[in-house]
Amino acid sequence: MNTTEVKGNWNEAKGKLKQQFATLTDDDLLFAEGKKDEMIGRIQIKLGKTKEEMHKIISEL
Fold it and tell me: Which terminus of the chain has fewer CB atoms gathered within 10 Å of its CB, N or C?
């Protein structure tokens, strides 16, 4: 999978997450290369979910 595909998939997933969890903002879902764990940590704190729950939610999108 190339960078364009990853960014496209993330944009789609980001939209679904914002629909499912209205409290998430664009800043919460900002994806920077190498910062995936940091982003998931921010979302975890905001939603009160565990790391495992977050990975499950994202994988189900």
Answer: N
pLDDT tens-digit readout, 16-43:
999 999 999 888 888 776 787 888 888 8
The Cα 17–Cα 47 span in angstroms is 11
Residues 34 and 43: their CA atoms lie apart, in Å, by 16
Distances (CA, A) of 57 to 4, 21, 29, 52, 54: 23, 11, 14, 9, 5
Full-model pTM: 0.66
CA angle (18, 23, 28) in 5-degree steps = 70
CA distance 31 to 3: 12
